[in-house]
């Protein structure tokens, strides 16, 4: 598909006002690119396996939006869908000639200059094919070791020459699901899970993403894994990645479900309890999850949680203790914390 990409180059100071002008003109969405540090709230929302490197703030901003090239005589504006500050509107402008649209933007800014100091931005555009950028992120995802003998390899890459014959190689294609294994939180989970695996271990992965934790556990010798995610794309990705790693379908199951909102339905689907439960999410999800996860675990079962920023660790620990878990390990890597907790047996 052909797209027209517009880049509106302005200053950080003027970016908000320029964005309002774009909205007035019916542009359905735009992305702001700058070096302004993210707020703590934004950092949590931007949690990904590839942390952003913003660099020093240079006072410049670029607003980017796309229009689809003319099809059937009907142009349209599209949101980039890639920024926390991505503004979405219901209306759509009918401009589809780039020069005309740029004239309209510049004309509106000139009108605004009579009332407030806003600089005239430089506006550029180019025609792109989506094949140029839809898989661009893959360039940053290379094979890497998460442990001395566990190698994570994207499906489109070759096994590196330094790989050892005895290595456990996990083929992964995140697709639209989350999780490559490169982030500290995923590494913490993988390393902790491995310590407790036996040939009879059954695992519950609450928030499976791409399925990497469950797949790693199965390749390390666990008996079976039951995976949950609130995103249907994650469920599909988990099953597809399991197939890529030649895991028998009888050993892994993935379902679309929300354990916090409908734990009874989830209990029916999983049909039993588990030796290990793992959740690599965020502290604000793990805290309420601690109220429910014990219902899915065998007596003395192990709950491994990660995705916890250090400043939230005490809150998570209190939630675990309140729900009759004893803390076995607290492991830190960078700014992140992982807990290994055992469910206390009830008499």
Number of strands: 16
Task: Based on Cα principal axes, name the global outline.
Answer: elongated
Largest sheet at a glance? 7 strands, mixed
Low-pLDDT segments: 44-53, 72-95
Strand arrangement within the widest β-sheet reads 12-11-10-13-14-16-15
Distance between the termini: 63 Å
Mean pLDDT: 81
Pattern of helices and strands: EHEHEEEHEEEEHEHEHEHEHEHEE
Helix/strand class: alpha/beta
Give the amount of beta strand, in percent: 25-35%
The number of helical segments is 9
Radius of gyration: 24 Å
Oligomeric nature of the chains: single chain
Helix content: 25-40%
Fill in the keyword field for this structure.
single chain; alpha/beta; seven-stranded mixed sheet; six-stranded antiparallel sheet; 9 helices
Spell out the blueprint of helices and strands.
Blueprint: E1 2-11, H1 12-24, E2 29-33, H2 40-45, E3 60-71, E4 74-78, E5 87-88, H3 98-113, E6 122-129, E7 144-147, E8 150-154, E9 168-172, H4 184-195, E10 202-206, H5 212-219, E11 224-229, H6 232-244, E12 252-256, H7 263-270, E13 274-280, H8 283-289, E14 297-309, H9 313-322, E15 325-333, E16 336-343
Parallel strand pairs: 8-9, 10-11, 10-13, 11-12, 13-14
Antiparallel strand pairs: 1-3, 1-6, 2-3, 2-5, 3-4, 7-8, 14-16, 15-16
Helix pairs in contact: 8-9
């Amino acid at each position: 598909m052909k797209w027209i990409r517009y880049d509106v180059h302005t200053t950080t100071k003027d970016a908000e006002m320029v964005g309002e002008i774009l909205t007035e003109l019916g542009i359905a969405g735009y992305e702001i690119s700058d070096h302004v540090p993210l707020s703590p709230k934004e950092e949590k929302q931007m949690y990904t396996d590839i942390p952003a490197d913003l660099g020093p703030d240079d006072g410049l901003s670029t607003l980017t939006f796309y229009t689809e090239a003319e099809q059937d005589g009907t142009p349209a504006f599209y949101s980039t869908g890639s920024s926390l500050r991505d503004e979405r509107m219901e209306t759509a402008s009918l401009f589809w000639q780039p020069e005309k649209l740029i004239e309209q933007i510049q004309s509106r800014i000139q009108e605004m200059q009579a009332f407030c100091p806003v600089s005239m931005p430089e506006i550029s555009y180019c025609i792109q094919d989506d094949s140029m950028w839809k898989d661009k992120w893959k360039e940053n995802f290379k094979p890497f070791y998460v442990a001395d003998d566990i190698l994570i390899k994207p499906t489109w890459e070759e096994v590196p020459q330094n790989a050892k014959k005895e290595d456990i190689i996990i083929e992964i294609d995140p697709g639209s699901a989350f999780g490559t294994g490169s982030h500290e939180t995923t590494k913490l989970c993988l390393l902790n899970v491995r310590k407790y695996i036996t040939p009879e271990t059954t695992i519950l992965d609450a928030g499976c993403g791409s399925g990497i934790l469950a797949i790693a556990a199965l390749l390390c010798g666990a008996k079976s894994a039951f995976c949950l995610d609130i995103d249907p794309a994650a469920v599909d990705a988990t099953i597809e990645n399991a197939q890529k790693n030649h895991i028998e379908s009888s050993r892994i199951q993935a379902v679309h479900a929300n354990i916090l909102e409908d734990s009874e339905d989830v209990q029916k689907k999983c049909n039993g309890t588990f030796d290990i439960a793992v959740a690599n999410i965020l502290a604000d999800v793990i805290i309420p999850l601690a109220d429910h996860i014990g219902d899915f675990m065998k007596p003395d079962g192990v709950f491994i949680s990660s995705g916890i920023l250090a400043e939230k660790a005490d809150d998570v620990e209190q939630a675990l203790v309140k729900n009759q878990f004893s803390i076995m390990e607290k492991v830190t890597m960078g700014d992140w914390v992982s807990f290994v907790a055992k469910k206390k047996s009830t008499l």
